[in-house]
C-alpha cells in the first residue's frame, strides 16, 4: 500500500504543471469551467469509478458489479481503454489513471476542462440544483448509499425485498419528466375535472319539459363519465416515478391485496428518483458534451501544441481511437457538428461583410469574389500565428494598443530577456500566454484551416439572399480588403458558446444537422429489413438521416412511457401509454417491466402500445421482389394482474392518443438502397 501511495504522489507531482496550465489555457480560450479537483487512481479503482458512474460511493446493488466486470473485460481484451472520468459537480472531480502516459494525461486534462465548462454553463445541468445552491452530487450519492445500506442491514427488513424493490424502480429510472426542473415533492400535476353539463343547463333558461326531451339523465351521466375519462387520458404524466411515489402500493401476498408502501420503500423511491434527475442532463447532452470536450481538447493538444513534440504521436493515437470507434460515435458526431457550427458562423460573418462591398450581390457573389484572395486576407497576422521565443520582437512591434497581445505578459518576457534572465515561463511551450482572447480567435480561425478551404465557396445563394434581405448599407465598403478588415474573428466561438448554453442533443441535432453537413460528412440511414432478415442502407437523404438521429436521442433513445390513468376502468388499475413513434416495443422486455411495475403499484397494470402486423402472403411477395412489406399498425393493451398477461385490442380513440401526430418518425424511405 505504501508503494502505491508513493507512486500516486509521484504521478500527481508530475501533473501539477499540466493541470495548472491547461486551466489557464482553457480560460484564455474563453471557457469558464467549474474548478476541477484531479485524483490519481490505479487501474482497478478506475474501473470501479466507471462502474459507479463517476463517483466513489453508491448504494449496494448487483448492477455495479456487473458494470465493473464488463468494463474490466473491455479493457482486458483490448476493446476499449479507460482514459478518464469526470463528474458534474461544483467543484468537478476528475480521476486520472496513474498508468497512462503523460500524453494521455494531458489529453484527459484538456478534455476534462472542457467538460467542466459545459457542466457550468449548460442550462440543462442547472435544472437539478436549486438556484443559488452549490452542487454537491458526491455528497448526495454518499448519503443515499449509506441510507440504502442501512435498510439492507436492518434485521427488521428483508434484504431480498430491498433488492427486489430497487430492481423494480431501476426498470423505470428513465421514466421521469426530464424537461422540467427537479422537484423533491414531485407530486402529480393538478387536473381539473371537466365541467358537468348539468351545471351549465341550470344557468340557462330552459324549461324542465324541454330539458327532459333533449337531455336525458342517462345521456348526461354517460357524457360526464366520457369527458372525465378523456380529461385523464389527455393529460399523460411523464414522471412515472413521481406518480408511483404518491399513488403506488405493494402487493401483500399474505393478505392477498394491495397495501401501503413501507416508509423505507418510499424513501428509496425518492432517492432513486432524485438520482435519475441528476443524471438526466448527462444523458440528454451526450453528443453535445462529448463533442464539446473533444473539440477543445483537440485544439489545445494539437493546434496549441499542449502535447509536446515527443508526445504528439501518442496523443494522435489516443484521439484516433476515441473518434474512430465504430457505430454512432457521440465524440465524432459532436465534434464534427461543433466544427461545422463554428465555420458556418464564421462564413456568415465573412459573407455579410463581402455583400456590403460595392458591386457584390447575392447574384454575382461566386463570380465576383476571388476566394483565394479572401483566404489570404483572412490569414492571421504572422506575428500572432507564429509566436515563439524567437518572434517576441514581432509581437512587440504590433504596438502597445494591439488588443490581440497580452502586453503585461509580453513586457515581463521582454524585461527578463533584456536583463539577461530566464523568462517567467517557457515561451515555446506556452506561446498562448502572450496573446489575449482576441489573439487566440485570430490564431485559430476556422476558415483558413486546410480542411475548410472550400467552405466559404460553398455558401448557397439562398443564404446570401437571406443575409442581404434586410441589408441597408450594402455599399459600405469600396474594396474586399476594407470589408475583411472589419471581420469579427470571434463570431464562430461566440456562436458556439451561445448554443452550448441552451441546447440538448435533440434540439442541437434538429437545429444544426443541415443538408450540407449530412452530405459533406457522408451520413446515411439504415434499417432492419424483414424481406432479407438483416440490416441494409436505406437512404442518404438528409431528411431521413435527421429523422433517424432525432429518434435515437429522444428520451435518451428509450421508449417514452407516461401515466394516462391511475384508476383505469374504475378498478384502481394503472394505465400507461407508450407514446409510439414508429418503433415497436420489445414485448419481452415490456412484459418484464410490467411485472416489476406490478410490485410498485400493488394492483393490475396496463400498457397501451402499437404493434406492426404483417400478412404472411405480403411478406412472401416482398421477399421475392426484394422490397419491404407494408405493415398494418394496431393498438394493443397489455394487462398484467400478478399471475399472467392478457392482450386486448385498443379502441381507435386511445390508439390515436398514443400515436405520433405532429412529427413523422417513419424513417423508412420509399426507395431503398442496395
TrEMBL record:
Residues 14-352, 491-556 form the SpoVR protein-like N-terminal domain. Residues 559-610 form the SpoVR-like C-terminal domain. It comes from Halogranum gelatinilyticum. This is Stage V sporulation protein R. It holds the Pfam family SpoVR. InterPro entries: Spore_V_R, SpoVR-like_C, SpoVR_N. It comes from the Archaea.
